[in-house]
Amino acid sequence: MRLRCRACGKDHPEAQDICACGGPLDLEGFAPAVHREMFAGRGLWRFLPALPLAGAEPLRLGEGSTPMPRVASLGAWYKCEYLQTTGSFKDRGAAVLVTKAKQLGAQRVVEDSSGNAGAAIAAYAAAGRLPADIFVPEWATEPKMRAVQALGATVHKIPGPRRGVTEAAIRFCREQRAYFASHVFPPWFIQGTKTAAYEIAEDCGFQAPDAVVAPGAMGTIVIGLHKGFEELRRAGLVAHVPRLYLGQAQGFAPVVQTLHGAQPPGEENRIADGLLIAEPPRLRQMVDAVKGTGGDAAAIDKGHTERALAGLHRQGLLVEPSSAVAHAALERFREEGAIRKDERVVVMLSGRFK
Length: 354
Prior knowledge:
Blueprint: E1 2-5, E2 11-12, E3 25-28, E4 70-71, E5 76-80, H1 90-103, E6 109-112, H2 116-127, E7 132-137, H3 142-150, E8 154-158, H4 162-176, E9 179-180, H5 188-193, H6 195-203, E10 211-215, H7 220-234, E11 243-249, H8 254-260, H9 283-292, E12 296-300, H10 302-314, H11 321-336, E13 345-349
Parallel strand pairs: 5-13, 6-7, 6-9, 7-8, 10-11, 10-13, 11-12
Antiparallel strand pairs: 1-2, 1-3, 4-5
Helix pairs in contact: 1-2, 2-3, 6-7, 7-9, 8-9, 10-11
């Protein structure tokens, strides 16, 4: 296996965490062994044959096998990723990423995150007995930062734009000879998030849904879903890849801008605090996942997010505003006729209310 930079095309060994040019890395030369037999049992690690971790000892905190109830009044199935160990879908990626980091010989891991990814990396670093440093923007919410600290990681608050947080984390890695366990730049995190697609297909009786709606910031859900469903299709376990739709926070909707030429005017939707990313490094992959499956993306404002959040809470789904953006996007696409009411739709509920 080798890694290839999406920005400059340079090849790297597996231990590389980011290209010198600053580009994210893709995995090359790995053939996942996707087959029906791997669906026996429960949890993420039953999918080990489809993960690039041969010979690794998995870090286990109960990740995977989240429920996917149908909520009749809302006319959709809801993949309850907020019931993961640390309260978000990020546990899937963190479990694989930190397991891989340990296999590569990492002695210390570093992440930059506004909240959920930081908590997930901190948890799996603790499970793997690795020191962890989490770099966060100064506006990161206190409940999420307390969770990171409770898990034993060191929090570094960085003022200024979001890009500066990443740059500070990378500088720290080079100074301390730490592994940049980013949920964006190395390919391992997305290898974990693709397992959500496996579980959705399983819960649908190996008939892929017509559409999946997810929230989108750095793109690790939608890219992982695209990868997972493509692997299932190539293995003959599903007949098609579902249309992938993305809900983004208004003011932070680069996929919407790329697809439609502009973001809608209006106030920034900062209550969806997990989605405040204006320049995701894997933007092109996000666009390809959406456009290539016949899906779309929508920018969701604060008011629609609040109403969607209240509606989900009334159904007993205790999610955070960033999750509610996905449900609001479903409502938008139904109003526009892009998603029909008679179609089987799965909505990704990405994070827990805190």
